[in-house]
Design a protein that fits this description.
This protein is α+β, with helices and mostly antiparallel strands. About 55% of the residues lie in helices and about 5% in strands. It binds glutathione (GSH).
Length: about 200
C-alpha cells in the first residue's frame, strides 16, 4: 500500500500512528505529498478534494479521508493487534464521536494556520479566526474535563487527539497547554506508551 501524506498534517500523522499500533508499517510505503499549489493536479487524481492523507491499496483502490483509512487499517491489522475502533455497541459511537471532536480541533487549527499562510494581512478576517479558535478552545476544554486514558491501551479517539494537539504544538506555539494540566499529563503518558508518536513528530 502507498500512503500519500506530509510530515506536518495531523490527519496523516493519525494514520501513521494507527499503522504503527496495528503493526502494519512494513506494508505501507509513505510517500511525501504536497498540497501546494492548491489544485495540485497529481494529488487531485488521488483525491479530487486535493487533500491528504490518501491510502492507495495494492489493487489501486483509493481511500480517504483519514477516518476511513484508519478504520480500514484497524480491520486489516493482525488478530493479535489492539482493536482501536470498537466494531459495535455504545463504545463504538463514543470512540468515533470523541475522535470526530479531536479531528474538529485539528481542522479548526489547520484553518487558522491557512488563514495566515494563504491570505495577505489585509485579507484576514479576525472574527472568522476567532470563531475557529473558539472551536479549538471548547474542544480542548471538553477533553480537559473528560480526559482520555481510561482504556488500558490508546484507542482511535486518543490517537486522533494526540495528532490534533501535536499540530497545535507545531503551528500554534503549544498555547493549548496553558491551564490544561490533565491533557498535558495525558499526552506525556501517551507519548511514552506510543513510541511512534515521537517517530512521527513533525519537523519544527
Ligand atoms: N477530513 C480530512 C482532512 C484532511 C485535510 O484537511 N488535510 C489537509 C492537510 S492537514 C490538506 O490536505 N489540505 C489541503 C487543502 O485543503 O487543499 C481527513 O481527515 O483526512
Amino acid at each position: 500500500m502507498k500512503l500519500y501524506t506530509s510530515p506536518t498534517t495531523p490527519f496523516g500523522r493519525k494514520v501513521r500512528l494507527v499503522s504503527a499500533l496495528k503493526g502494519l508499517d512494513d506494508q505501507i510505503e509513505v510517500i511525501r505529498a504536497d498540497t501546494n499549489p492548491p489544485g495540485n493536479a497529481e494529488l487531485m487524481t488521488q483525491n479530487p478534494l486535493g487533500k491528504i492523507p490518501v491510502l492507495i491499496l495494492d489493487d489501486g483502490t483509493r481511500l480517504f479521508d483519514s477516518r476511513v483509512i484508519c478504520e480500514y487499517l484497524d480491520r486489516l491489522g493482525p488478530d493479535n493487534s489492539p482493536q482501536l475502533i470498537p466494531t459495535a455497541g455504545d463504545e463504538r459511537w463514543k470512540t468515533l464521536t470523541r475522535a470526530s471532536l479531536a479531528d474538529g480541533i485539528a481542522e479548526a487549527g489547520v484553518l487558522i494556520y491557512y488563514e495566515g499562510l494563504y491570505r495577505n494581512e489585509s485579507q484576514r478576517n479576525a472574527d472568522w479566526v476567532a470563531r475557529q479558535q473558539s472551536k479549538v478552545d471548547a474542544g480542548l476544554d471538553y477533553f480537559e474535563q473528560d480526559p482520555p486514558g481510561k482504556n488500558a491501551t490508546p484507542d482511535y479517539a486518543d490517537i486522533s487527539l494526540a495528532a490534533a494537539v501535536g499540530h497545535l504544538d507545531l503551528r500554534h506555539g503549544g498555547r493549548w497547554r496553558n491551564n490544561r494540566p490533565q491533557l498535558v499529563a495525558w499526552l506525556d503518558r501517551f507519548s511514552t506508551a506510543v513510541p511512534a508518536y515521537a517517530l512521527t513528530s513533525p519537523p519544527t
